[in-house]
């Protein structure tokens, strides 16, 4: 019989289908199985007993995703170094959102609409998708998990639309972290819906004053600190000396975050997400954020792949699909010489 101790606890190298099947068994047969170890994927208890999925790649990189929020809270490289920032004061206490990692903003970015800030899916319990559609672009990923969120009656009171939000979180063979979102309008009343969206990624940096962002120079942006007035970025790469909260428009598909102290460049590649938000609260504003340590702004930088300026409209039956891929390379190139292909290939 499949549900034997041998099957459940031996460190078999399971392919994803088998791993997934084991997870299903775990879900069906109780919480005692939740910490079962398997090659590539593990279902475990996180902070405050919230369920999380741990993805591991054979060379040592890993990622963690909470079912609460469909929220990635950890992404580590082969050396076990954490690449995402999570606040030491993060609540992990539903219905409050988790401060750090990769919150998903949907169906509203920030306060650009009537809903709560950044929408509500980051405050919902997602499920493991038992019937994920084919994801051809991620077929090389060994470790991945598919999550799904559907509109509840409660959601429909605040946003009267039926949707299916499918999220795949995948760890590539080189430790790259890929998030693919598929949002479908499942309204049966024939009505379209409109939304804005962001992967609100908090990167971990060694010192914000020493960080440089390349790929956004000379672009237009809306400044959230000045009533979203439109400006054009001047000069070379972006550096940080105070609070920043900008929505860059029509951005390239690749953005690099150079961390001098770590001698590491974080590369964000995106597909279908034209905008990019850059946020750091700096000291004064950080003190007003209860779930962020006073000095923690120094160690975080949000660079967020987004669709904000031109909201997305989906008719019933239509699906919107977007993707974000994060990777790292050693910092060995200079400002103004950003060649994303070289950055990604590391040569
Ligand atoms: O993405 C930047 C931003 O919208 C900022 O304006 C800032 O408020 C931040 O997100 C955090 O929002 P939150 O609702 O998570 O506190």
Automatic annotation (TrEMBL):
It catalyses: alpha-D-glucose 6-phosphate = beta-D-glucose 6-phosphate. SUPFAM superfamilies: Galactose mutarotase-like. Its EC number is 5.1.3.15. Gene3D superfamilies: 2.70.98.10. InterPro entries: Aldose_1/G6P_1-epimerase, G6P_1-epimerase, Gal_mutarotase_sf_dom, GH-type_carb-bd. GO terms for cellular component: cytoplasm. GO terms for biological process: carbohydrate metabolic process. It is an enzyme of class 5 (isomerase). Keywords: Isomerase. One of its GO terms (molecular function) is carbohydrate binding. It comes from the Eukaryota. The keyword Transit peptide does not apply. CDD domains: D-hex-6-P-epi_like. PANTHER family: APOSPORY-ASSOCIATED PROTEIN C-RELATED (PTHR11122), GLUCOSE-6-PHOSPHATE 1-EPIMERASE (PTHR11122:SF13). Belongs to the glucose-6-phosphate 1-epimerase family. This is glucose-6-phosphate 1-epimerase. It comes from Hibiscus syriacus.
């Amino acid at each position: 019989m499949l549900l034997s101790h041998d099957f459940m606890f031996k460190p078999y190298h399971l392919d994803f289908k088998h791993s997934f099947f084991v997870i299903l068994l775990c879900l069906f047969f109780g919480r005692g199985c939740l910490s079962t170890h398997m090659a590539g994927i593990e279902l475990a208890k996180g902070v405050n007993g919230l369920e999380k999925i741990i993805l591991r790649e054979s060379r040592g990189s890993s990622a963690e995703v909470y079912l609460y929020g469909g929220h990635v809270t950890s992404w580590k490289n082969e050396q076990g170094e954490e690449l995402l920032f999570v606040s030491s004061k993060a609540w992990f206490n539903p219905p409050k959102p988790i401060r750090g990692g990769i919150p998903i903003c949907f169906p509203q970015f920030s306060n650009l609409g009537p809903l709560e800030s950044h929408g509500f899916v980051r405050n919902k319990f997602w499920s493991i998708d038992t019937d994920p559609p084919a994801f051809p672009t991620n077929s090389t990923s060994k470790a991945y998990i598919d999550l799904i969120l559907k509109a509840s009656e409660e959601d429909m009171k605040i946003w009267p639309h039926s949707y299916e939000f499918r999220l795949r979180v995948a760890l590539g063979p080189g430790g790259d972290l890929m998030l693919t979102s598929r949002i479908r309008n499942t309204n049966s009343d024939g009505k379209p819906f409109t939304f804005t969206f962001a992967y609100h990624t908090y990167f971990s940096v060694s010192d914000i004053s020493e960080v440089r962002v390349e790929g956004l120079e000379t672009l237009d942006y809306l400044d959230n600190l000045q009533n979203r007035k439109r400006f054009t970025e001047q000069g070379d790469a972006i550096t940080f000396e105070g609070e920043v909260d900008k929505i860059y428009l029509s951005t390239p598909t690749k953005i690099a975050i150079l961390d001098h102290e770590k001698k590491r460049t974080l590369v964000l590649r995106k597909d279908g997400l034209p905008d990019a938000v850059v946020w750091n609260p700096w000291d004064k504003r950080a003190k007003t954020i209860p779930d962020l340590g006073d000095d923690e702004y120094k160690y975080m930088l949000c660079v967020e792949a987004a669709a904000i300026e031109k909201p997305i409209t989906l008719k019933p039956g239509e699906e919107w699909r977007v993707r974000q891929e994060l990777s790292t390379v050693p910092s060995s190139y200079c400002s103004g010489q950003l060649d994303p292909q070289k950055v990604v290939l590391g040569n």
